[in-house]
Structure formats: C-alpha cells, structure tokens
Amino acid sequence: MNWLSLCVICLAGAVSPGPSLAVVLRHTLGGGGAQGMMTGVCHAFGVALWALVTVAGLSVLILESEAAYRMITLAGAGYLAWLGIKALRSRSGGALQAGAGAPASLMRAGLDGFMISVLNPKLAVFFLALFSQFVVPGMSLAGQALMVATAAVIDGLWYCLVALFLSRTGVLSWLASHSRSIDRTTGVILLLLALRVVQLQVNS
Can you give the residue range of the structural domain that contains 152? Predict the structure, then answer.
C-alpha cells in the first residue's frame, strides 16, 4: 500500500456522485462559482476532521491490540468490497439531478459543505475501512499527517474544480454521461484493494 494507491482511492471516492456533490452543485447553480467553491473547501475541512480522528484512533489501536487491529482491517476490507459491489451495480447518478437552490451567503454555503461531510456516517465508516489498510505499526506523525492531507486536498480540489468550471464547460453533462463508468471504475478499485488486503493478512 503506498501513497499513490491512497490518492487513487480518495480521488475515486470524491468523483463518484453522491450527496456531497449535490450540495456543491446546488450552491454553484444557485449562487455562483464562489459559493460552490466555498462549499467544496469547507466540505474538505469536514473530510480532514474525519480523516484525523480515524488515523489517530487506528494508531492508538495498533499499540493497544494487534489482534483487534487485524479484525478491523479485515472488516474494513469486507466493507470496501461491499462498496465496490454496490458501485458496480449502480445505475444512476441521482446527485446530478440537483437543481439550483436559492442564492445563499458564502458563510451558509460553507456551513452546508462542512455539515454534509461531518454529519455523514457513511464517510466515517469509509475512512475507517480505507485507512485501516494504510496505517501501519510505527507510522510517523508525518506519515499520518500526509494521509489526512491527501484525503482533504483531493476532496477539496475536486469540488472546487467542479464549482469553478461548472458554468463554463460541460463538467455536469460529462459527469452525468459517465456516472456509470465512474461508479464501475470505483467498484473495481475498491474490490481490488479488498482482495489485496485479504491476501496480505492471509500471508502474514
């Protein structure tokens, strides 16, 4: 497991249409690019918070109980496999049907972006499953910080790019026409990761 693998998975998760994208689209279409980008940036802060809590918790768990950590790692692999199968079976990008909302202030747009990530329990479980595959015994604080920053920066950049170019290019139409391909690619990546984790655990 290396940093590039983490980047690919985080990017696949960010690009895959979901409720977070719907909120970014609503504020972008209703208030403009600035509101959309503020939504995306604050969403990334929420992602960073979940990532920080998850990495810190897993690091402590490794020190306390290796057996418990192995169980969480395998359970996380199972959850990633389930997400992969779900993504492969997905047939629509409902989030892309979001219409323009009423114009909102930058503060309101930012608050919506932060809350949709912080209050999303699926995001918490996803990070637990994902980071359990990358956190290793003896990982430095710099390594942990890199993981947190990677997840947050990729998330924030993606949503900012969507908001920035939404009104100028065919980003929304491209996402809509490729939503199934995106989901299938994400599904394959998650399944491969899950299989790799199981293989490593069996051989260890």
Answer: 3-203
